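Duplicate of #3305? Posting structure anyway:
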């Protein structure tokens, strides 16, 4: 029987390496599994006519066979790797305003860098890596991985949106406390009343439930000893053949009220009262609400993601693509004496970009290992409570007061890994 992980690996190969359109790849998974063509290795040994039984287009069939042979050859040549491979991510652009995407396509467009290689080699590289960053993106990384364990029903799009919300609310509070900004936070003025709240890493967030966006997920598995690629595939589970989307009204789940919380809500606003009671494990996918934008635009026609991935003018939420891009560009390698001496040599932007993405993959992997070591012993609520303290222990040191606002420093990934139980 083909496992979920094998199906995901097959879909990743077809959509990324063989460049098969995702909807077509999803429709052919069953045909391929029935004839045991579920890996690049098995596809590389199949005849063109066998592949054409599932993909009749000869050009596409040749494309798949060529990709399978290329990947198989690459894996064979590195059958005994001693170090993790560079981080890999899909080259997917965010959806255009008004563009409709299926859940699978939308989640694929948000994929984060992953690593391949034996577990000891991954840990060795983590222990020897120091990144140079500021505090805000580190918060986002902490939350993205935390939610994978504390709210496992949330897709990557929701985790990124909620992580950006935690970071932004914290930054606003800090700016007010330091006197960098004046006035009150939007929620303190009543914006967002009537929308449900959740608590993430010690902060209360106003959220929007994405009714109509079905997210199927599997129970957590013990990944100890498995490859990094396998663990990341299980972590991000967007590619599921059985995903079904039932469209609902955007207005039903998007509108936000500013006012007295004791005022009765219209029927379609009674989000948490008219729907079944939910818990963190059964909570539908969520968006983090951007109350500061809501206040500044007075709920006018800014184009923002809606509950089922279209863009609408009803309610501002934290865009997961913005959070993802923020992560991708924020974790440079800490400068060393040798690197400073070589600064005179030009480095391509592509090289620096690849390095940052690799560092992000290492950081996310380290955080995942930390949370996985604690979740079964202390539970989701306690893990959420402790996460902020762990972040404080490893965050970059900056000057105190306004002088340190936005300042950068070094983060030793070894210290992150030492947070494991």
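Output from current build:
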């Amino acid at each position: 029987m083909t496992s979920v992980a094998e199906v995901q690996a097959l879909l990743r190969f077809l959509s990324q390496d063989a460049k098969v359109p995702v909807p077509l790849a999803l429709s052919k998974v069953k045909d391929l599994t029935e004839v045991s063509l579920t890996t690049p290795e098995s596809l590389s040994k199949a005849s063109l006519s066998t592949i054409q039984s599932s993909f009749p287009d000869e050009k596409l069939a040749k494309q798949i066979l060529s990709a399978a042979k290329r990947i198989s050859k690459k894996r064979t040549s590195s059958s005994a790797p001693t170090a993790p491979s560079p981080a890999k991510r899909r080259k997917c652009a965010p959806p255009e305003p008004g563009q409709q995407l299926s859940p699978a396509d939308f989640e694929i467009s948000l994929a984060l860098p992953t690593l391949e290689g034996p577990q000891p080699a991954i840990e060795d590289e983590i222990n020897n890596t120091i990144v140079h960053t500021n505090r805000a993106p580190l918060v986002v990384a902490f939350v993205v991985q935390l939610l994978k364990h504390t709210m496992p029903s949330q897709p990557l799009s929701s985790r990124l949106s909620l992580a950006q919300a935690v970071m932004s609310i914290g930054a606003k509070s800090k700016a007010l406390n330091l006197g960098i900004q004046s006035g009150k936070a939007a929620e303190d003025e009543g914006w967002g009343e009537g929308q449900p709240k959740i608590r993430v890493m010690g902060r209360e967030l106003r959220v929007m439930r994405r009714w109509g966006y079905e997210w199927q997920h599997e129970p957590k598995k013990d990944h100890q000893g498995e490859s990094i690629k396998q663990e990341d595939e299980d972590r991000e589970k967007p590619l599921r053949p059985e995903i079904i989307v039932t469209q609902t009204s955007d207005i039903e789940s998007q509108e936000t009220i500013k006012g007295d919380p004791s005022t009765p809500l219209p029927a379609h606003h009674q989000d948490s009262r008219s729907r079944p009671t939910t818990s963190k494990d059964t909570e539908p996918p969520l968006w983090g609400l951007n109350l500061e934008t809501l206040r500044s635009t007075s709920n006018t026609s800014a184009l923002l993601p809606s509950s089922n991935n279209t863009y609408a003018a009803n309610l501002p939420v934290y865009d997961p693509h913005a959070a993802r891009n923020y992560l991708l560009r924020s974790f440079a390698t800490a400068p060393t004496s040798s690197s400073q001496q070589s600064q005179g040599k030009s480095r391509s932007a592509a090289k620096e970009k690849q390095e940052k993405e690799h560092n992000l993959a290492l950081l996310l992997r380290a955080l995942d290992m930390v949370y996985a070591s604690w979740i079964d012993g202390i539970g989701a609520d306690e893990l959420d409570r402790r996460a902020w303290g762990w972040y404080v222990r490893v965050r970059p040191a900056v000057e105190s007061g306004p002088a340190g606002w936005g300042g950068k420093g070094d983060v030793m990934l070894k210290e992150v890994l030492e947070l494991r139980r």
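Confirmed duplicate; merging threads. The CA atoms of residues 9 and 36 lie 14 Å apart. The longest strand covers residues 203-209.
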